[in-house]
Fold this protein.
Amino acid sequence: MSLLPTLAFVLTVLISLGLGLRLLAIARRTRQIPEAAIGAASLLMGVGGLVDAWAALAAELEPGAWASLEVALYSSGAGVLYLAVWRLFRPGARWAGVLCALAWAGMAAGATVIAAAGGHLADASGALRDGSPRAAYYLTLSLRTACYLWLALEALAYGLRMRRGVRFGLAEPMLAHRFLLWAGASGCLAVIMVAALFSRLVLGQSISAVPAGLYLMSILGLGANLGIWCAFFPPALYRRWVADRAEAA
Amino acid sequence: MAETSPFDAVATELERATALGRLEARGTLRLALRAAGLEVGQVSRSQLAVVVEKVLPAELEVRGVTEAADVGQTLLAALARLDESADAARPSPADLFRRVSGS
């Protein structure tokens, strides 16, 4: 793998782990579901990334088992993220709870089928093997994609509402901007997932086996994770920029 | 006696103070809240007061309500009569960012 994608991947995993640990530490104090769930999701995704890297480096050692673990970690992360989106943006909505339950059931079923089949999804070139549990694979990938899309849409809608409130002094400019940043970052992650699905379904290849796809995933993934970090822990420079813009408006 | 929400209190008074019917009064108020980025179920008394002063007059003028300023004063008086609990901050998604690292 070339330098840029490798560097981007390493940084992405580190940011996910750091964000997860920091949010979980905060959640210990606040005892609130959203930060606990988002922290757990970020940590699971980060660990999933580590497993992904280990599987790529040591593929000859039980590759199926590592693939099963990877799917389980990513699906668990998405599952917890579904909980976060529900409790944060739609706490009183029954449909959101039903949606989460269906997503959890689907991802659990998919991960279980993949594990039962030995996790042997792809060959050395990254193409799905004949006889591999494709339906289960596509199900888990689609549900993970839907999670990021839902988060992006909810954060976008809320950020735009807050921005309207800023005009009348009813909302803080920095908070509105952070939600819009979070929406953009989550949207980028959703784009990566959609590209991964497209690559599998149409090209018959893993997105990382397609050079353009690898670079897209690397740059968007790193940018998205940096965006999420800045949304949760905005650096002073970002705060000053938003404040200056709000003052000028 | 059930506690009256700020929205219900203002909507009822708006209906009394103008020629708007019940549905029209509530709809006009909802539109004003939406323009200000607020939701009916989560709006507090102080937030609604800002909406009444800054957003609602334009909506009332569009609906042919004359003397929107007088109507506004009536609505603010109705809000002032509400219990203090109507000013309690409702939980919102923004609380997440405030808890994590301030505003």
